[in-house]
Amino acid sequence: MGHFGYLWQLACKSAWNRRGTLLLIVFSIALSTTLLLGIEKLRSQVRENFVQAVSGLDLVVGARGSTLQLVLYAVFHLGSATNNMGYDQAQAISQKPQVAFSIPISLGDTHRDFPVVATNDTFYTRYHYSQGKSLRMAAGKKNKELLDVVLGAEVAKSLGYSLGTKIILSHGQGGNAQSEHKATPFTVSGILAPTGTPVDRSLYISLAAMEAIHLSWQNGIPQNVEMDAETMAKLEPRAITALLVGLKKRSQVFALQREINEQEGEPLTAVLPGVAMNQIWDMVNVGERALFAISALVTVVGLVGLVASILAGLGERRRELAILRSAGASPWDILWLMAMEGLLLVVGGTACGLLVLYGLLALCAPFLAEHYGIYLTLAAPGSGEWLLLLGICLAGFLASLLPAYKAYRLSLSDGLTVSL
Amino acid sequence: MQTTQDKHKMLAIRLENVRFRWPGAESETLHIPHFSMSQGERVFISGPSGCGKSTLLGLIAGILVPTEGDVLVQGCALDSLGSAGRDRFRGDHIGFIFQQFNLVPYLSVVENVLIPCRFSQRRLKQAKEQGKNLKDVVKMLLQRLDLEETLWSKPVRTLSIGQQQRVACARALIGQPELIIADEPTSALDSDRRVAFLHLLLEECISQGTALLFVSHDEVLAEAFPRTVRMQDINKIERGES
Description:
The structure holds two protein chains of two kinds.
Chain A: H1 3-17, H2 19-54, E1 59-63, H3 67-76, E2 85-86, H4 87-94, E3 99-105, E4 110-111, E5 114-119, H5 121-126, E6 128-129, E7 133-134, E8 137-140, E9 148-151, H6 153-159, E10 166-167, E11 186-192, E12 203-206, H7 207-215, E13 217-218, E14 221-222, H8 229-233, E15 239-240, E16 242-247, H9 253-262, E17 268-271, H10 273-326, H11 331-372, H12 383-414
Parallel strand pairs in A: 5-12, 9-11
Antiparallel strand pairs in A: 1-16, 1-17, 2-15, 3-16, 4-5, 6-7, 8-11, 9-12, 10-11, 13-14
Chain B: H1 2-7, E1 13-20, E2 30-37, E3 42-46, H2 53-61, E4 68-73, E5 76-77, H3 82-93, E6 94-97, H4 109-119, H5 121-128, H6 134-144, H7 149-152, H8 161-173, E7 179-183, H9 191-208, E8 211-215, E9 227-230, H10 231-234
Parallel strand pairs in B: 3-8, 3-9, 6-7, 7-8
Antiparallel strand pairs in B: 1-2, 1-4, 4-5
Helix pairs in contact in B: 4-5, 4-8, 8-9
């Protein structure tokens, strides 16, 4: 057993001997670690969620207006509705030679607070998320009949729907029996596999179906209009909310964007979703930094507690340090012994904090996904998180050098005779 | 070092014209023109508190460095070693028994006895040579010091003071250091246990050939020592004002 090995053993045994007090310190370091990493995790996961949802898209096109509002509403179904754009305009863009695929999106209806998205088959085949993953059916198939609906994974799970379930959509935000599309019940034909994007929280119907259920409405009041199913299936929308566009070559994105923004006729806005994302990050950056600063301060408080408790314990340990000195320990050994104790506590604390964090994440993930649409993945800590952990440990070690130095000075002045 | 050893047949302790003054203090605490102890000699040092006993022990232990003069332990001039060297030298050659609270509270009896072997390779090597294995050596030592096996696994704080002092005694003896310094080791014991403890200690020192420097203000114990030194006689500091 090496010299340092023995000092480690002493440090561990000594800490264990005073575990009552030290456990509180470990606990406070654990909590501050959980807070610091938890906030960091939440922040990065939220960003990742957003980025993943738009990772396969090059442009989002909609009626002229706020670019941010357009992306938030069309892709994330957040915020307030934007104006519609003409379907003919959308089709014209789809025909452009640079365009690889385009997905028309029509929003407005809901079902039990989940947004209903009207789109076409391209959505199922060409929508990509999270660096090139395509959508996959967990059960059933995509809508074939006019009044078929496909559910996102989270919708099916939280409402307990399965294939064949009949559901009624609500007009607008719903919440009122008057505004339900009672005449046109939909049948669940498919359920999508989870994606970790807003897709999971949406219901998908065809554009024709969206037209059909609104045909009978005039000025927001349901009317009786008789129409045969065949005619209805051929219905085309006059307007849609937005067009999600993927290009053949990404390098053409700016050219096409300019082209759309400057074209004659109906004024349109084409947005690079990534740029809109950056606008969001810029806005939330201040808040994020404030949160980070607060949690960093909490960590500092935890470390101050660490130093205070080691210092407080020093008095009753002078005798023991003198015994070690008499057996040949140098003042440096004493310094190391104390620093090791600090390191032990801070490493133990951060390890506990990591465990608590992952426990909490596992517990809260379903709740956050359901209520806030934040999808947490229980991945191993990333390099940023390891860096934070390392930072806490290093700070703790450096902080514990203060009591260690005090012990070093004490052992020099006490020598072998401690007057108690 | 070799020549010094030859000249003095390697005295256990030798102090020549040693003066010590605490940093910042106006007057000297200690002035010992000469003091020496032979190998295996057992010396009783008496004197009232404040007469420089602790300072003397600090100098011999290499914790304090004399302002002037030479301190030689086992023929080695301590101030030639440097502070890290003195710490190592102390671990290698000197065993200590203090007045009380001799044990590290979070270590077992056996672990407490083994502390010097953890800091000193020399003590470890010499301890291993004394028996089959290290544990065996500790056991033999503890048994000779009347510590029954049932006590060995107990937390040290549940031991009586007498038992604690005997564990400290085993720790001082393990690995056969040439010198044991006992600083008032009996003052926390009641009177009949003092004599018993002292005899145990002396017996072990004699059988190991270890020199013993025994500091106490209890003059009754001096009878058991071949030589008694009064601190007042070797420390030539004038104490006019106090």
